[in-house]
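A common beginner's mistake is to predict each chain separately and then try to dock the pieces by hand. The better habit, illustrated here, is to supply every component at once so that their relative placement is modeled jointly.
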Amino acid sequence: MSFDVRAVREDFPVLATTVRGKPLVFLDSGASAQKPRQVIGAMTRCMESAYANVHRGAYYLSETATEAYEASRRAVQGFLNAAMPEEIVFTANSTMAINLVAHCYGRGVMKPGQAVLATEMEHHANLVPWHMLRDATGIELRFVRVTDAGELDMDDLAAKLADGKVGLVAVTHMSNVLGTVTPAERIAKMAHEAGAKVLFDGSQAAVHRKVDVQALDADFYVFTGHKLYGPTGIGVLYAKHALLEKMPPFLGGGDMIASVSLAGSTWAAPPARFEAGTPAIVEAIGLHAAIDYVTAIGMPAIEAHERALVEHAMRRLSEVEGLSVLGSAQDRGGVFSFSLDNAHAHDLSTLLDRAGIAVRAGRHCAEPLHARFGLEGGTCRASFGLYTTPEEIDFLAAALVKAREFFA
Amino acid sequence: MFDDLRDLYQELILDHGRKPRNFRRLDDATNHARGDNPMCGDRMELQLKLSGDVVEDLGFQGRGCAISMASASLMTETVKGKTTAQAHALSDRFRALAMTGTCPDCGADLADEMERLQPLAGVHEFPSRVKCATLAWHTLNAALEGSKEASSE
Ligand SMILES: Cc1ncc(COP(=O)(O)O)c(C=O)c1O
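With all components supplied together, the output reads:
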């Protein structure tokens, strides 16, 4: 299927709406993406005709729902090219997936004296769980520096792995602020050579690139459904099966046990061990539809479309006087954080909103990264989806020029 | 493209945003408080010099958007020389103004002061920006009460 952005836009009802009388220019897909009819329809159909609790009833509807839920797991397996469906754990979002690893692997498997190596460019979701782990266990926390270009300092990464104490490297696969795509394969290799496991936060990357967890040799890989044109409330933890087997449960409750007596309980095998309670059934089905949707278009086609958008945006934004774009990584995806020399990010986003343009203002859950660049006051961020057009970027650039005049 | 935003960004606000008044440290402050808006990174340090129950002087420092800087600047100008009771009353009224665009409780007293703050009333149409305007006043309350942290979250 060749990529036709006009046809794609038809699939997203919200893109036809107006904001204060102006056509919506939605440039905040990095925070959460809009939903195609295919996802909306699949979730509606599930609730209208195929809904019951899963793994619990020996009757038709429950069996149908269970099969649909497990089919979603297989779809995720295929999407990430995991070796088996049991390596896919459904969570609420990326945040919960990382917390699960911090808890079940960090507390459950790692030993005092070991260290976690994160980076300066992490989203708070891949920072705070490690702070909590450090504070609870005395496991050391280290950070890889970010260069002025907004890339990981790979020499610093090597230096911080050198003493062999790092048990886990936790790093983003694509920065939600800089757009930088990190050299994941190389990081995994370096981590493994130093005896560490590696977790990739794929919240952004999985939306824009084909991810192959086996080719990456990732030990853990997480992403979140709502950024992948799917619903909120569903996220994914991929983990190598051998690791999941070693990990104690996260939450206790129904569905995660092998047997329970009043004296105690034994754990189910993964992935059920990590999915206590009634899961996000309808959302899992929505995620399946989202995966089918992007797969039908083709991740390579989506990537090519977005690469063209990134080049276009770099050119157009560089023409806006007084605008600085954060980061200039060689390998970057469709996320641009920027500031104007005469306007605060918040004022700027209020203006852009008037023009129908939705961008995010603030520090995008990455305070340390903004501090690293001396931008404690925040930036505005434009982030693209598969429905973004070059014309929308032109419109943004024109609005930025006008905004600068407004504040002059 | 942005002409209708002149209601929010009136010349007075842009002017105070660019050149905030009382943007300085007080050497002889008696009270101070820090205000934070964790959502957007706005931050201010407010110092007061109380003499009896009169706010004799105020100074603030920090960073923020045009709205929050202008609001802090106007707040310091308005509160200077007022009693603490008047300062509290202004604070209550200002917050009503910022949230609703009007101030039904604004009686005859302090009418001139509220008139000066009127240019900020436009924020009520921008729910995500109300906190920018109220941060300075939250911080003022914290400083008057002697507490050290305020948040407009
Ligand atoms: C890089 C990155 N990591 C983690 C997250 C957290 O995702 P969620 O809020 O869905 O858990 C986000 C998005 O907010 C993100 O961009």
